Each structure stands twice: as C-alpha cells, then as structure tokens.
Amino acid sequence: MPTSTRKSIENRNITQHHQKTMLYCMSHRQDLRVKLTHANHFLLLLVCFLFNFLFVEGVERGLQESTRLTNMATQFLVSLQQIHHMLVDMYKFQQTARMKATTCVIKFL
After folding, report:
1. What is the rounded end-to-end Cα distance, in angstroms, of the chain?
2. Cβ-count burial of 10 within 10 angstroms (0-12 exposed, 13-18 middle, 19+ buried)?
3. Can you give the residue range of the structural domain that contains 24?
4. 3-state DSSP call for residue 62?
5. Is the backbone of residue 62 left (phi > 0), alpha (psi -120 to 50) or beta?
6. How far apart (Å, rounded) are the C-alpha atoms in residues 98 and 22?
7. What total of structural domains would you count in the chain?
8. In Å, how far are 11, 21, 61, 70, 80 from 15, measured between CA atoms?
9. How far apart are CA 109 and CA 96, in angstroms?
10. pLDDT tens, residue order, the chain (109 aa)
11. Which of 3, 33, 68, 106 is the most exposed place for a label (fewest CB within 10 A)?
12. Where are the transmembrane segments (predicted)?
C-alpha cells in the first residue's frame, strides 16, 4: 500500500475518532446541563414552598413566631445557596475535566 494512501486512511481514522470523542463530550455536557437545570428548578420550588409555608404560619401564629420561622428560613436558604454553588462548581469541574481529556486525546492522536 502506498504511503500516501496509508496516511490518508490514518488521518481519516483520527478524524473519525476525534468526532466520536467530541460527540461523547458534548452529549454528556448536555446531560449535566439538564441535571443542573432540574436541580435549580427543584431549589426554586422548595424556596416557593418555604415562603408560602412561612406566610401562612406567620399569619396564624403571630409576629413573634413568624420572626423565629423567618430566621429558620434564612438559615435554610443559606444552605440551599451553598448546595446550588456546589452543583455549579461540580458542573464547571466536570466540564473542565472533559475539555482537558479531549485535549489529551487529540494530542495523543
């Protein structure tokens, strides 16, 4: 087999492998985005439920109890915010790791 034909086949194989790797990375990045979006929606629903609960409980129990519940809600919201930041950091880390892995595969090929 001539050298040019062999090189052409190798280049085509490398290109196909690179395309498969990129498709794999892109599909998983989309999965992470969907998971992150679902997590954000869940947190938003949780916050809405919490404030609805606080409003009803505050009206029924009076101002003093409402203040205590509001303090509890504030602590809860801080926890939710920390969870949200952890999810975002995890998404960014996984995205960076995939980009580095793709770069390594490309350099290797």
Report:
1. 22
2. exposed
3. 3-108
4. coil
5. left
6. 10
7. 1
8. 6, 10, 68, 58, 44
9. 20
10. 566 666 666 666 666 655 666 565 556 555 556 566 666 667 767 776 776 666 666 666 666 666 776 777 777 777 777 777 777 777 777 777 666 666 665 665 5
11. 3
12. 41-59
